[in-house]
Each structure stands twice: as C-alpha cells, then as structure tokens.
Amino acid sequence: MIFYLSEAAAMYAHVNPSVAVCGGINSLMAAINNGHHLLIAESYNAYKTLSDIACLGDHEKAFFKSRATNWFTFPDLADIGFSLLAEIEAPEEDVDYPFTNDLKVMVTFELLSRMTLCAPSLLLSENISDSRFYGCLLNWYMEGWGLEAFHAKYELRHGGGGTTAALYEMIQTEKQKFCACILDSDKSSPGGKAGGTLKNVLRVHDDTCIISRPIYDYSFHEKENLIDYVAVEGILKGVLDENQTKELNNFLDVYRTLPYKYQSHLDLKKGITCAVLSSMKCNDINSFKYWEEYLRDHTDLEDSPCNLCLDSECEAVFIPKAPSFVREEALKINFSELAESANSDLRSIWQKLGESLAPVFIAEQESFIK
Prior knowledge:
By secondary structure, this protein is an alpha/beta fold. 48% of the residues lie in helices and 11% in strands.
C-alpha cells in the first residue's frame, strides 16, 4: 500500500507520543522494512521525525538510514510520474498524474493505532477468476505509467455471492490488514439496481466505519463486460471449432450493433430475452425501460419471435447471451493482447480501476527487496 506522510502528521506524533501512536509507527516502519508497503513523505524531516520516534535499536536505525530510498519525498514524485499529494503545493509545471487525490491513504494515527500493518494489503474478490483478471489489469496499468520497478503485493481471498460481505466483515476483526474488496455492480442499466453482493458489502462497510475500501464501478455490469468481444473474435481464430465459431458469430452479429453503453450493461450470461425483460419489469423498472426503449427503437419487432409479450415463459431472444466458452477463453488471453485490441471506452474504464487498485497494492521497489 502507498502511504502519504505529511509534516503535520509527523509533528503530531512527535508532540503526542502515546503508546498507541508509537506502536503504530513501529508497525508501519517494520512493514516498510519488510517490503509490504511504501511510504511517501512530504519531506525528509517528516520521515526522520517518524524514525526518531520509533523504538528502534541502533542496528535497526542504521538499517533504515541505509534504506532511505524506501522513503520517497516530494521531488521524487514528480520524477517518477505519480502523486498522492493532498497537503502540499503542486509542482510548477503541469504534470498528468495517474493517481487522483481522493485515492490516497493518509497516515493518520487513528489508522496506525488500529492496525498492525504487519502484512501486505488484502485483495478480496467474488471469485478467483475475478482476482486473476484484476491482478493483470493492475500490472497493465503500472506498466502504462512506467512503474515496472514497483510490484503489486497482496494476499488474495475470495468469497462468492452471499459469502463475500460476511468475509469482508470478518476481515475487519483481524486489524492487521487493509482490505480492498473489488466487486461487480451487476447493474443492467445506468439507472438500474445494483446487485445484492455489492449492496451487502457497502452496508457492512458503512455499519463498521472501517478503513478498508470497496472498489466498484457503476459503468459496467461485471468483469466480463470489460472485454472487447469483437476484438476477441480475431484473437480466437484457429482456437474455436466450426460449431463454436458459428455460435460466436450469431452472438456478435447482434452484439457489434449495440452502442457501447448497452454493451457495458448487458448481462452476457443471460442476454436480453422476453423472460429477462419480464423479470426486469417486476424487479428493476429502470433497466426494463432502458432495454425496452432500445429494442423498440432499434429492432423490427414485427419480424421478431414476439412483440415484447413479456410472458415469463416466452423463449424469444432479442440479444443472445455470449457463449460460455468464449467468455472462458477470453479470460485466458494475454492481457496485453486484450489491451492492444480493446476499444477506447474499455481502456478508459481500465484506467479508472487501475487508479483505484494501485495505491492499495503497490509495495516498495523490487530492487530494494532483500
């Protein structure tokens, strides 16, 4: 995790060296020493103050001093091209930073007294496939900003449906780990209802006032919507058999005609059928109106299997689901290859997710790991 230490916070610790504060400082220093976290200081004096407060022996202090490059200061930030700055002035020159100010993790001494920080940050996802995908996305993001010298370090856990919120709540009792929980929105339209897993995790988060971070984005339905399936068709040529190719083409014939805002909220596991629309009308009226309007404006319903009868037993298909083998094979493709062929809308969302993930999971530079 990236922590930012201001001079004001360091001075507070100097003036108020309580047992809890000193314990937190020792924990943070040890975690940085072990390569679990990275500390960015406003100035040399800020981290020197922290080092002086810490209950370290002469050998440990000498070791920290020899590893001063673990502690990045303001000029270094401009050099390596990113910033989590909040309390200091921006550089004179305009610099595009990949991390926005609201994504910083401030070193507050409430945080330090509550957590031992003796372990890497923890990534909680809904399933192992999600974790692998977002891990690849994080590496792609770091490489895009020239941060290859840093590495993403985290412990991985995953829930599944209804168990994710309970696991997220249980993690908070450990206190030793900062947890980022990355979730699907499961929204079928921009104004639609969020899924139960996301709502349950947010409820736990609000009730416990914890410092861990849920990460989600309402601009897409789930992880599978972050793949450009039109591009995937070309990548998978030669991999699929004749029947699979035919099934994929049937899906793409309709999918490629959808504007991106509809592609991003399409439930690829169900598609849009009369039965799906019937369920939406009962449970998610905004999503129902969203897709009904699109179908009436862009589909010749007179030639369709039905004219939106909305019978829950009707099997009429307006937008087919993505074949399961394509969704599975797409996730096996090298992420760099996916990124090269992805459209600009997808790459924009990937950037936003990378911004959210990187401050939590970047640890110290690999060259400093002993």
